[in-house]
Amino acid sequence: MADTLRTLLGEAECEVLDSQLKDGAEVKLTHVENIPVSAELYWSAFRDFIELQLNWKRHENLKVLKGDGGVGTEISFYYNLLDLKDGQRTQRLREKNDSTRTWSVEEVGTNNLYRSYLMTIKVEETEAALARVTISVCFVSAIKNEKERRHDIVYHKVYLLGARLRDILNFVVREKLDGKHRFEMDVVCSRRKLWGVVGNFHNVSWVMGTTHAEATGLRRLMYFHNGRTLEVRLAWVDDSDYLFVYEGDNSPDVLHCKYYRGRLQLFAVNPHKVKVVYDCTFLPVNDEPLEEFKQWFIPAIKTRFDWIQGKFGESSLAADKIAADSNEPATLETTSDDLPDEDDGPPVESKLYEGDEQLTTKGDRGFTTGLRSMAKGAMGWARANVQGLVAAPMGPPKFTKGAHTTIASDNVMGPVEEVWSVFRPFGRDCMEYWKIYDSMEIEAPGNDVQGCIRAFVTSKTKSKIRERLEWRDDEAHVEIYSLLSMDPSPPVEMTNVYTTVTMTAVGEKETEVKFECTFDAGLPIAVPSIQDNQKGAYMACIHGLQQLFHSEVGTLEVVVRGASNLAVSGDKYKVDPYVMLVANDGKPAITKVCRGTQHPIWDERFALSLTSRTRNIVFTVMDYNKSKDIGTSIVDIAELTSGKEETMSLDLQGGGTLNVRLYLKVHQKPKQLEGGEKVIPGIMLPFIAPVFQSELDTIRNEFTHLIMSFLGPGQKYGLTNTARLRSHPEVPLEEMPAACIPLPTEEMFSPVKIGRLMQRLAEFIASQAQIMMRYAQAKRQGMWDPWKANFSGYLPANEKLIETWQNDEEFCRQFLQGINPMLLTVCKEQSQIPASMLGLRAQDKTALQLMEENRLFIVDYAPMLGAPPTPGKFFYAPIVLMYKEELAGGKSRLNMLGIQLTRKTGKNKVYSPETAKTHPNKYMFAKMHVMSADNNVHQFLYHLGYTHLGMEPIAVSLHTHLPPDHPIHRLLLPHFKDTIGINYLARHSLVSRIFPITDPMFATSTVGGLHMFIKEWRKYRFMDMAFPEELKRRGFDEEKSDGLEDYYFRDDGFKLWNIYKDYVTGVVEAAYLSDKDVVADEALQQFCQMIEGPGQLHGFPREISNKQLLIDCLTNIIFNVSAQHSAVNFPQYDYYSFIPNRPAQLKMEMPHGPNDMLESAILEALPDVKFTSLQVLLSYMLSMPTQTAITEMEAVKKLYPDVHETFHAQLLDLSNDIKGRNEGLKGEGKVAYTYLDPENVAMSIDI
Ligand SMILES: [Fe+2]
């Protein structure tokens, strides 16, 4: 938040004493201000600390830790939400003395910003209506960097102290005096366009009657046509919220106020219409009664306000037409950024200040008559002039065309709107695709609008270059920028350097990107080299965009026929050749293996996807048995002719000849669709089908490749840390649990298992052939019908879920019995509840009362804060409150209290069943965002992270340190069957660095999900995550003291845990006579050390000193890899397969603004069909029932038959109990919980 302000503060002229800058120095700063209300009134703001905080901006995710607003009340908040570790602060109200009117808060404990911090405010009476307020801070900074420490002091001196006092004044004037008014209006232009003007502190073209402005730091002096000036101060600006707040004091003849604050916020109604909400706070200069003042003041403001409508809007008829043409409902409320053109044309300041020349001449009401007269006369003028202003032609700036031109263009395989929106940022964001810069920033004041200047450093030459954005037209997709300076200066003088970038749609999914630069050069002979340099830079941009859009420009069909005279190495073996072929930027394809021949015949056909960057294809003949290559050959794609088949005999480097047939097919421009082909809005069948096919082919190839690569080098088990990705060097993948690489042959899947996996895959692919037909035929009576098309005769539908998923009770039930029963927590501390949710009520109780009655439950998705934002996907870190609803007959159930999606400053929006009465769609959408967050947290943390990856080091250490006849080896061995293999598969498919299929699927994308996991993994402690401990931490226990019914994960889990513990106790007691024996077991101790050390499984005991610890540790291991994994793995298909119930991602954030959203907007926000079919496929494959249930286990049957028998019998008893209970549930029409029935619990993490 404060970043923008900090930028504006820039290198503010501000003296900072050397003594204050020393590390550990106590910094004392004081600021005094006369506040234009009485001391008593001003002091009244301090009555309730919590209320004051909620109305006090700048603190994000405010929570009340204790207290009710009086002295001793503690609050916590984040200084910077994106950096939790560094940003969290806790403050306590230390003093509130009504007689001396002194108030102070202090920091509780230390944090990364301050070692100590004390802020004191003292309010003194001077005259009747004037308070003299002194604010002082005394702090010791904890910031290590001296420059940043200085910046923080400047920030306090120049901005924060005064802003604090005026925030309080604003609160008093609004809430105690009612000196406020809200204006709302729709302007027919895009939000981005209007924000481009309003959000630019230098731009006053939206202030009626101004000529220009001069901005210095946070102050802006505005000049009016009549020669008057008015100074205002920036109070707040937030680009992400399209929010701008400014204030002015004491301007009797202009504002007629001794205090004025304008808060202007923009909401998108649709891509072509913006709702402007303007809240103003005012205090009349002459203390006239507010009611009287408002009578003329509000209409006067409105005049100015309306002027904006005329100035920036187009006629509303035109807007309706635009909306109609684009099939967008005119009332659709959306926050998506729309793309109409943006002009920085002449400005306006929503407030009223003086009239302008036109007004004076035309309207006989000079500014000298002030606002009062304007209120009476100006409106007519404003309306009359609307037409003239709108009609004024606007176009790109005229510039001198240079004598020379450089042109670079190529196509990007993406829709023009999408390509443009990626390209569009003028500042740092373009480094995402334009990878030739070391740095790039928009110069302060940092708004990405027309007129802004970017400064960048090129990686190659380290030149510092500045360019100005001269023109940007989001509708025509045109941008013009000019070169301002280069440092060092180029050897040849260049002038009139203007670059025009144009994007043109050449098809539904293809865009031509064209750069055209005109310039004059001092030395004509240098022109070609300038042009080469420019062209290189432009093409780097286009290539970057192509890379982002994975543009396929064609396909290459390859038939690998055979080879002759292949080389053999040595003379002991014949070769078993196969061919791997790779387009230079693609994934490899592999032929079958021909056994024992130097003259193999494969005759296999492959289709390789070519991108514009594909230059060649590499054929490598490999020897299957020795995993080494026999020979390679490279074909240059440029030598092939599109549409013509070519037969080639390639000489292999290494000896022999490879015979191939190649058929290159470069894509034609997509044909126009016939009217009838558009089946469902947004889904074009002819385009979707190939996407499906290519994705499925890729998966199939990936799996085939994996199965082939199972032939590893031997039996050795070793741990390796994951290397960082070149594409995301900032993500410390080496911190993940260590992995077993390479895959030992022992860990290959059995042919049966591979067969089952492949069978599911094949079945699914077959079912996909029909999926588009079913989509097309899906009944369109209900809005969710298209999603049912995923189900067919082959893929069963969860009918009950489809019927009930929208109900609150079902939503809550899933936290108890669904795929992720790991987050629900008994809410016992007020500090857990966000301040904005304290007002929620149910069954006549407040949230706090529910908490006191042990009936309040919370789910906090804070881990999602650890995932960086992903373009095109929106996710939150929601907080959900639920309560135990008392029902008739002593029954109860979990039900919904409310959802808070954001953790922003001040009040956050809360969605509750109450909201649903007026805004049912927004409420539904909030619940979907919760489930989307749950989906990501479940998969990356609780499933992949804490079970699959987290447990792998134990498997490796087991094989490394415990001999096969060791009793603990025998005990554990079946619990690690196939774990290394399935993880290998996951690493190479689900989260592979080559082809991460989770990437498009999840809101966080793969890297974001892993990033989130790594942040949580740092806090993970194995023994603290043991089932009883983990539940206890969340407020649940075996005795059900939490009072919650139907939490079967808890109930069945404790029973299973106890059986496991008995079993493990039996084994340990039989294997070790005493604690001493345990300590003396060197193999066991080394087993532990490897897990905790190189394995990076945090919190695993490094040393086992007694039998009890060994029992606890082994029980924990066995429970985790069997019951825990089963509980978070096998329900996947039940809950993930119906996409609206648990979307893995959503494309839209919650719309702002006062209206409900449309159902169609929810549908639009759901992920594309191609991604959802992957979600269904994955959940289906991963939910395959286990073939190795724990009831089948025979680990210690021979070694300790009694222990085994007891264990086995207890499991069967429990299974019977659970089956009986489930029958009863079904009889009541409820959902059975089957996942922890021992017959369904897999021995190991094997899927
Ligand atoms: Fe799994």
TrEMBL record:
Domain Lipoxygenase, residue spans: 678-1247
User: What molecular function does GO assign, one term?
Assistant: metal ion binding
InterPro entries xref list: C2_dom (IPR000008), C2_domain_sf (IPR035892), LipOase (IPR000907), LipOase_C (IPR013819), LipOase_C_sf (IPR036226), START-like_dom_sf (IPR023393)
An annotated GO BP: lipid oxidation
Compositional bias of kind Acidic residues: 335-346
Is Transport one of the keywords UniProt gives this record? Answer: no
What residues does the C2 domain cover? 534-650
The record's annotation in Pfam families points to: C2 (PF00168), Lipoxygenase (PF00305)
Q: List the SMART domains hit by this protein, alphabetically.
A: C2
Chain positions covered by the region annotation Disordered: 323-367
Domain of life of the organism encoding this protein: Eukaryota
Which keywords are on file for this protein? Dioxygenase, Metal-binding, Oxidoreductase
Concerning PANTHER family, the annotation shows: LIPOXYGENASE
Protein name per the record: ALOX5 protein
Q: Lineage, please?
A: Eukaryota, Metazoa, Chordata, Cephalochordata, Leptocardii
- What's the name of its gene? ALOX5
